[in-house]
Write a structure and sequence with these properties.
heterodimer; A: 339 residues; mainly beta; five-stranded antiparallel beta sheet; four-stranded antiparallel beta sheet; 48% strand; B: alpha+beta; ten-stranded antiparallel beta sheet; two-stranded antiparallel sheet; 1 helix; 12 strands; 38% strand
Amino acid sequence: MSDRRVDAIGSGPLLSIAALVAATWFVAPVPPGGVTETATSDTVVVTAERAEQSDVAFAPGGNRVASSALNGRVHLWDAATGEELRTLDAHRRESYAVAFSPDGGRLATGGYDGTVRIWEAATGEPIRTLDAEPWPLDVAFSPDGEELLVGEADGDVLVHPLAGGAADTLEHPYDQNVMAVAWSPSGRRVAFAYRALRIRVAGRGPGAASDTVLRGHHRPLYDLAFTPDGGTLVSGSRDASVRIWDLRDDVAVDTLTTRMPAPFVAVSPDGGRLATGGANRTVRLWRLDAPRDTGRAVIRHDRLITGVAFSPCGDRVASTGLDGRVRIARLETGGGGCP
Amino acid sequence: MNAQDGDRERDDVDDRLRLADLAQEHESLRRSQRRLRMVVAALAVAVAVPLISAATTGRVANELVVEEIELVGEDGTTRMHLTPQISREAVTYGRRIIRGSPDAAGIVFYDEDGEEQGAMAVLDAGGIGMGLDSKTGQNGGLFVSPDGRSMDLSFWSNRGGGHRIDLGIDAGEGPSLEMQRGGEQVLRLPRPGGDGSGKGDDE
């Protein structure tokens, strides 16, 4: 916006000088990196530069957590101590998505600058930049780590071969934001959630299952998660419901209704538990086979929650919030995901 | 797991959450202190600049002319935005999305998390409307057509199978009222087959 008129108080040097003085004298400096607020045996809370956080992911070993922020940065944290391991100036503007490769060696991030960037997770060195105009909203590595699924704001879903080559554009019948993408554990199916109230599940590779569209949510979708056997898909929506879909019959077999929207979902590695978070500012754990009766609060944020993730062993759950915090809670029982 | 184990587990979780809440509260107080200093600074500027300006020019300002006004909460969260061009993009749950709204000027209201909670807009193509949102989405709307031939007021909820009430006026068909309970229509006036005037529909 240019040439703004501020006739009432005048513009010019007086205002500029006053603002500069105020900024210099009164505004507390912002720490350059993240701050570990508390780290106990049960809970780790970290604050990343007071920047609103948008997504969270555990590394495959469970010892590191990555979070993306609306100031464009991506932080890597020690999951046990909350120590900040690395800060990536990942994107020029907002970062929305973060995902580790299955071997933990690479990190994919997506942001409002219209790019997806692949990073060496250990060193923070950039490996590759992928075009994702207008901008990506979610990313997911294939289980073999050879492809990256990207959901974009214009409705495109792209599969990028990470060894090089052109991206495969999946059909996009809805000209709407792809809010979430997920790869089934076998790599034979991909699912993407449109803001336009539909989930599309597409087969990948020869002999894959046919494509299907799941409908039922009344308000925009935000997140998806497959169960470890790939037979069930969980979807979270702003309509204050979480739906559990049986992909053999393409029907919702259960619907968890919450008082406030809890559109971010994660399934534990053993497939037994579901974590949800959203406008209620609370991460709750549910039993996937009886979700309506089992909700238990494990994390609270000051503002709404923007991402939840289980650790690969199911012994921790992490969340990000608009309060600028990443919270990691140790759970009483493991999720059976590790030997 | 027996009932005692369940209780113990809940107690443990509560203890941990209380500890986390205390740490959180401490940080919140520190941030409040910083915010207060910023507010004092902003107030000092806001008061001093017009005073100095008036004193030096002899002019008392009685008009503010700007292109946009954005009101923010003490933590910087946008709560109200008055703009001649409502953005086609919106940030929701930490993600910027394309919402494909028509060109319009208006006021957008936001909740304490910065999520849109409603708007009043004048469309560039004509017409004026208002949308009233809850945390789960839009639940009410009002629209007046640019030619003044139709006006509609609606409220709805997707809970309980879907309830809805629509009240409208059309210059040609006259007034109408329609209600749905649990997704089923329970009232429609004038009744289908009526002459549109509403007269005699209840006979």
